[in-house]
Amino acid sequence: MHHRLLFDVTELTQFDKGTGIQRVTRALLQALGQASPAGWQVVAVRGDGRVGSYFPVNSSGQPCCEVHPHSSNEAAIEPAAGDIFLSVDLAYNMNQSLREELIRFRSCGVGVYFVIHDLIPLMHPEWFTGESAWFEGNDYLKLFNYWFECASEESDGLICISAAVRNEVEAWLTMHPPNRSVLPKLGYFHLGSDIAGSRPSSGMPRDAADVLSHMKSSPTFLMVGTLEPRKGHGIALDAIEGLWAENEDVTLAFVGKQGWGIESLIDRIRSHPRFGTRLFWLDGISDEYLCQVYMASSAMLALSLAEGFGLPLAEAAYYRLPLIVRNIPVFREICEEAATYFNDTSSEALQRLLHRWLADKEAGRCIYPDRMRVLSWRDSAAQLMSVLGHMRGDESFWSRER
Asked: Which pTM was predicted?
């Protein structure tokens, strides 16, 4: 008899912004579909909050794992003892009816687990205030708070994407105990780095060759991720402008979609006299193009004030791109000694650091991420299943030898 891993892809069936979390969802679904052992079936499911049920999702040929909603007359998933429900994406569509369905799943012997990417909206609500078009006009803080309440109160375990996030979740649950007698089990795993293993998108714009040529013609500092207040794009531009004032021939490239609370920076980028020559903003590019951008760049800048993991760091390390990162606990965990750390807060200090880094690169002294451990997505999926097995008290439940 087969047990099922009910893998929640609700967000992917509604819209895929191509952001880091949804890359994680696609990549882990593909990896688990490729490596499921005898006795287990991976079933992609979507939640329908109108009827309070989860439905199977078409998978047009494993291991590709493209997902499409079934028709409205599709039979809902019926829970069976020994099944596992795993929510990897941030499914902030969670409502009372879906929550009650997960309660029913657990009462029928289904293990319910949520992956926690970060608690940034809880710990820094000032970065997410008000309604935003990015969140379909919703109050994101309200949605996130309810989603985490459900995850912490109705699950058997919370699996975090780093030890840093696990520590934050543990501290948060201690200070804000959920309404249950026994806390959910906590664990963590690390994410993969190989874009090819994440069902990558393809396509190159007409100006791609020209942009890549510009990037290769001078030292290029790259930032990857949604443009939002905590990410540090503004301080990076300030520092690079300082280098330009020193007649340093350098390039700054942003890759990511426009987020929220960042309108003044967007105006500044688009009106900048060096935009299109030494300053680039590549908005919503394909994974194929992103791989070329990694290879054309000289260093990755990661200046975020808070992160759950920092997926672009792992991807950049895969391409042996030097890393210049803010000194926060999660970046220390991921990069260890394989990065150059920024320990200050001012653009002037960053400018001085980049100036020294350019000199070190010229002298062959800059740090490369050669000793940084980078996982494939299959490795990451194996870590995730190992943690889940530990939580279940069955270390070999996902083993091929079973």
From this structure: 0.93
